[in-house]
Amino acid sequence: MDLQWWSIEVLDGPEQSAARWQDSYGTALVEAAVTHGAYEWSWVRQSWGVVFEIGFRGEGRWESYRRLPVVGAALDAVPDPVNGLLIYPGRGGSSGRVEPRRPRPVSGGGAVAVPVPVPVRDELVGVVLARAELVPSAVIVTRSAGGQS
């Protein structure tokens, strides 16, 4: 029997763990998978989140499962909705990190780079600038208080 495997990875969020998300939505996701032709499934807990692996018997069963409202609601409720959801064909088990994922420090304190001034082109064409010439230095005569130089 040839199974088509799909994996749903949910990463921990800043305020909620993926294990807590699994406790809330796991039963509904498994029930929907079984009723739509899933032959095998498993949950794998990692230090960074959870992986839900589903094996379907038919070609179009994944699409019908994915379009279910309960599945859409569960995927919309992941702990990190921006970067915390990965869905791909095949068995799960992405290369999890040995150490926990941490936010990267913002370089430069989050400031924007200083804009480089654009050189202004002189609009006066054909203007000749005056040339500076060295003037011979004049001899300065100083007189003392007694009137002698």
Q: What is the structure about, briefly put?
A:
With 149 residues, the protein is α+β, with helices and mostly antiparallel strands. The chain contains 3 helices and 4 strands, in the order βαββααβ.
Written account of the structure:
By secondary structure, the chain is an alpha+beta fold. Helix content is 21%, strand content 19%. The protein has three helices and four strands. The protein has helices at 18-35, 61-66, 69-76; strands at 4-11, 38-45, 49-56, 85-89. The protein has a four-stranded antiparallel β-sheet, covered by helices on one side. The termini are far apart. The mean pLDDT is 79.
Look at the structure and give the mean pLDDT.
Answer: 79
Quaternary structure annotation = single chain
Low-confidence stretches: none
If you compute it from the alpha carbons, what radius of gyration comes out, rounded to the nearest whole angstrom?
A: 36 Å
Report the major sheet: 4 strands, antiparallel
Number of helices: 3
The end-to-end span amounts to 119 Å
Strand order of the largest sheet: 2-3-1-4
Strand content: 15-25%
What is the number of strand segments?
4
Going by helix content, strand content and strand pairing, the class is: alpha+beta
